[in-house]
Amino acid sequence: MNKGGMMLLIFTEDEIRDKVKINEETIHVIEEAFIDLAMKDVQMPPIMQVDIPEHNGGIDIKTAFIPGYEMLALKVSSGFFNNYRLGLPSTGGVVLLINVFNGQPEALLYDNGYLTDIRTATAGALAAKYLANDSCTKVGVIGAGAQARYQLMALKKVKSFTHVYIAGKSNRRLLDFKRMIESDLNVSAIICEDATEVAKHSELIITTTPATSPILQSEWIQQGTHITAIGSDAEHKNELDPYILEQATAYVCDVVAQCEVLGELRTALQAGTIQETKNILELGDIIANKKVVRESEDDITIADLTGTGIQDTKIALYAYQKLTEEK
Amino acid sequence: MNKGGMMLLIFTEDEIRDKVKINEETIHVIEEAFIDLAMKDVQMPPIMQVDIPEHNGGIDIKTAFIPGYEMLALKVSSGFFNNYRLGLPSTGGVVLLINVFNGQPEALLYDNGYLTDIRTATAGALAAKYLANDSCTKVGVIGAGAQARYQLMALKKVKSFTHVYIAGKSNRRLLDFKRMIESDLNVSAIICEDATEVAKHSELIITTTPATSPILQSEWIQQGTHITAIGSDAEHKNELDPYILEQATAYVCDVVAQCEVLGELRTALQAGTIQETKNILELGDIIANKKVVRESEDDITIADLTGTGIQDTKIALYAYQKLTEEK
Prior knowledge:
The structure is a homodimer. By secondary structure, chain A is α/β, with parallel strands linked by helices. Chain A has helices at 13-19, 24-39, 114-131, 146-155, 171-185, 195-201, 242-247, 256-262, 264-271, 283-288, 309-324, and strands at 2-3, 6-7, 9-12, 48-52, 57-64, 71-80, 91-99, 105-110, 138-142, 163-167, 188-191, 204-207, 226-229, 250-253, 281-282, 301-304. The first copy, chain A, folds into two domains: 2-115 and 310-324, ornithine cyclodeaminase, domain 1, CATH 3.30.1780.10; 133-307, Rossmann fold (3-Layer(aba) Sandwich), CATH 3.40.50.720. Chain A has eleven helices and 16 strands. Chain A has an eight-stranded parallel beta sheet, sandwiched between helices. In chain A, strands 3-8-7-6-5-4 form a six-stranded mixed beta sheet. In chain A, strands 1-2 form a two-stranded antiparallel sheet.
């Protein structure tokens, strides 16, 4: 678009969805994001947050500057949980790409949060790739929203699972969810009574809820389980009983400094089930330095993913490249 | 603009410049911003900053949510000081207006930093209005960039000054500056040897430089002077000798929490010329609560302005209103 001397490329959600998919390429892009975070002198300021409780919503701003790239992304994401009353999706967002040589905005990716969904799902797949048992075929999912579906789509690229055990609040949503993943992923989906039953059957559990108190209890977790906790990304959110973090052989953060404020680590520190943060591993360090975390098939592992600005910059740069490469 | 289901109003710098000027209206808008900051339950998160020293630049993100308004602004501003080599202005920026009921982006004000210039200049005028002697006719300016000119344009709306004493690094720029303000503002502009001479002649001094060490020394400051320090808005910047803050009868911040990190207060705290921050006045408090700061014509007063997200939200809402009111 060029309007009165302004040069800013603008891309819509449809255009972005057309070019950016959950596949080996985007998993690789996010894998590189974690490696860069561990290895490069990345600048990733604390997340900027505005809470708007009067409208049951909030806005997050994330960014990261990775040396060696021409642009950085400034990612705005919103979650407004009364939006269903307005016929609007709860989550939204937009990404601004800014040139790091001169500060000029280069592109606006009007993705309504789609790129956030992709970079979150692919990070979940990476957590499973590096932490879960190779052999796992039975996956549990708590929460039946769009992100749960994206998580399974990404996981399918790294794990050959055959059965999905699901639990959630709305029966109608669970039925839709079952139908969609059975047709998309060629798996059997089993709707469970509750999270206890999900945990009993699953070798890998993904939690993708906006819960503010634990939805998984430590006594339910089977030996050998890997858990990826996606839901908690704000100071009031919490999905895991803090004793699960104590019980786990390995607890891994995307970024410790974020997880201790926004993730499962926050309640575990409060409960004293984790006493100090200095030895906690980060996913990027594990990937970059080929650290082996799982030492036995019986180990319980946890990945606490709060979502990082470097994932946003990487996926936006990838989207920009795909969107402009034919021009 | 409506592109593939996307509804986002986009306004260019030219359109914005046409509707938003330095005048009584914009001064009033920014006065309200300071009052809201003092009186309302405003949410203004810490400034998000990315420094890009390899390209002599950086990006700032500011925001504020003011209860009662339909939108908030997310303001991105950039300063890249090698841009002159590329034939680009050093500063730039863009403002995103986001609906606070549903999180949807409503408008993009592609202003290249113009609204930041306006809200900064009008804040300077307000500092002078509430802190400087009413009678002052002689104004000093250190730095001869665009913001210095905007400061004088805004100041002219609140003070009937007749003489401007200027100093700066580039003679050519000073000559241009003199020509412009003499023709725009009907004042006499006197180019001084240095800042010492400026201080000797001035009753009100505005500093608008990117200095990283003091450009005004305490022994130069005349009794009765008011100083508005605009330049320091980053952790490495500093325009005032910290002893000026000790010498002053009143030192006023836009926001204490910002000035102690980004403003003149930072070096004064380091030097020990200010020992504690708890009794420091904020400009909004003075305006809202009609506090009289200047008790005598001989008082020395200082306003330390780092720039606030609430100014950005207010000026963006005003611009949006002006830009859409005829449609």
